[in-house]
Amino acid sequence: MVIVLEGSERRRQHKYFNQLFRLRHQIFVKGRGWSLPSVNDCEIDQYDVDDAVYLLDLNDEDVIQGSVRMTPSERCSLLADYFPHLVENGESPRSPLVYECTRYIVLPAQKSREANRAAKARLLGAAVEWSLSRGLAYLQTVIDSVTLSSFVEMTPQTIPLGLSHPYGGGRKTPGGGECMAIRWPISQQVLDDIHAYGGVDRRIREISDFNPADRRAPVQLVH
Amino acid sequence: MSFDGDEYSKRTLDFVQRLQRLTKYDEICREITTELEWFGFSCVTSWSLPGPGGNPADGVMFNTRPQEFIERYCEKNYVMLDPTVSELRRTLNPFSWGDVLRRRDLTKSQKTIFDEAREFGARDGFIVPIVTLSGSMALFAPCGLEPNLSDRARAAIEIMGVYCHHALRRALLQNQREEAVHTPLTPREREVMQWVAIGKTDEEIADILSIGTTTVTSHVENAKQKLDAFRRTYAVVQAIRFGEITL
Predict the structure, then answer these.
(1) Per-residue DSSP letters for chain B?
(2) Residues of B with Cβ-Cβ distance to A164 under 8 angstroms
(3) Could you tell me the pTM of the whole model?
(4) How much is the ipTM here?
(5) Which residues 98-117 of B have a C-beta within 8 angstroms of A?
(6) Is the pLDDT confidence value at B182 over 90?
(7) Mean pLDDT of chain B
């Protein structure tokens, strides 16, 4: 089940946020060795703002098995702040119609290709679905260039914004590599592509609006 | 904030956009060949590596290298020897033939493969490794006499390679599906399949149509063959899918 949380709910939903920030620390700081601000084994940065949107893929025990953070690119954009050189098509990386995905995590309990694909589709399908409901034009993100193929495999509509550039010291340097920026147009076609990729059954989708008054659990977006 | 890019990024982003609009295999191949020429690549092979015991020729999605080279490559089982293939065990980053020659000490027989490529006018090439959905490897490998292998050209070919691989794969899948549609049923076969679909046995259909049971069986067998179906039930599914019968 994928749930949607907003940064402004950090206190009310502290159980989930605590779990998320710890997981991020474990994966990005300990696992990948990124130098990110962290306090008490929690990784929280300047983009964890009130209007950031978090998608959490939870298992039956309420444990996070996948997550992505989406921020309004107008105010919070890693691409614009740190990697503007990745955008080579002359367009601005900031727009009210573009959200940016960062801190992408997929950790399905079952380690098989199918489970991994389904987990990716569940999370990114939910991201596109949420963006459709908000009338956005694009989702954008900075990726490691070797993963481009998996994004194009999900949908051929994936748009490169420029060529690959080295980061963190270049090829063969630990923690470094080549990165690039991509966008996904927000459309039903892209959503269908993602569902087809993950073998997700479209009929069981369900979107409902978040209403904190009558829900203790956050909004359920995708089963 | 952002810049308009140079010739390399402009070309690549335009190319991707054009490719996204194409669905026909031949058009995709033409587009790829033309774009690669600008970089000085005269030939290209887009290839899914065979699994253990697989036939290397089966995985070729698009090839403009001379047929004799490919035939000899398969015949001599060069896939086991080719240093650009074994290089894939070390890296998923793109590399050139020159990189491999500089990085590794090659045996005489390994060098033969490069010599044979030189015979058709390819002195250097570039390999873009692609991990496929099934976890196996695929390559997008253009080559030429004196291709542009500058850093920017490499970055451009890397992105092109990924998009080309997926565009070719989709177009080939689509071709396979369309080919499966053809060979329409005869009116009698259609009539028989209509009865099969509602669960009648060959004997019952023979009674209804006042023909022999063996005739019915042969109509069903022919229909199964045309519909590429191993079982009756699947033949019914296929017949409905192709619009030959309705329920």
Answers:
(1) ------HHHHHHHHHHHHHHH---HHHHHHHHHHHHHHTT--EEEEEEPP-TT--GGGGEEEE-S-HHHHHHHHHTTGGGT-HHHHGGGT-SS-EEHHHHHHHSPPPHHHHHHHHHHHHTT--EEEEEEEE-TTS-EEEEEEEESS---SHHHHHHHHHHHHHHHHHHHHHHHHHHHHHHH-SPPPHHHHHHHHHHHTT--HHHHHHHHTS-HHHHHHHHHHHHHHTT-SSHHHHHHHHHHTTS---
(2) 155, 158-159
(3) 0.79
(4) 0.85
(5) none
(6) no
(7) 88
